[in-house]
Input
Amino acid sequence: MSTPQGTRPPTGSTPVQGRPSHGAAAASSGRPTSRTLRVRRVMALVLLAVIVVGVVMLVRAAIAFGAGLLADDPQGKVAPPEPQEVAATGYKACQAKDVTLWLAASKTEYAVGEKPTFTTTLTHVGHRPCLIDASSAVQEITITSGTERIWSSADCPAGSKDLLMAPGDVWTETVTWNRDRSGPECPTGLPATLPGTYSAVVASSEATGMTGPAVPFTLVAPAPPPEAPPATEPPAAGEPPADGTEAPAEGAEPPAEGATAPEEGATAPEGDAPPQG
Output
């Protein structure tokens, strides 16, 4: 006997139409589940943290390596330097390896009364800022003639002039020599300088080896005075003048200016004869 359709429920579970299950929906659509998304987010955060930590460590290592290259005395290679005085600002004094010193003269020859002028130039060629005294007491210009010391800018020095120089800085100053001699403690009454060839050199007493090349120059001698013409003496009595003309007879009047003397044997012109007695 046949059972009519629709009166016997089907075996097994049949999903209700329009309401699919979670897993089936996710699998059918191809999208990741919420659990998968959470796992991926955690892994991305962990990877980002590792990258940040690695960058920080690389930056610190680079800074330490650069500081070791710029250090004057890297640790572990040479013995530490002896203690030295450091300015209140914390900068060290410049050394010869940090700063170059140069001297130039305005001319090679100076006329009488012309004062020689010199220009000193400091150039920072090191890697770190440093302090240097650029006063004339420390940055000394010395003028010599042969082995004789003629003048020094340190004999009568001015006040100190501290400079904080950074890499690449250039500083210049002009010094004029008044052509006088000088001595320690600035004495007076020294002999005057003479014309001739001199040499100027600059050196800093603050750093050993900081000096510039010698600069030669000349003080020109004055021109000699013009020679005076030789003096002429009047001719003695009875002697003809030096030009060959005869001197007038004693008591005779000299001819008028512009008149010519009569030739020998010539007669006086008519009207000029002396009256007959």
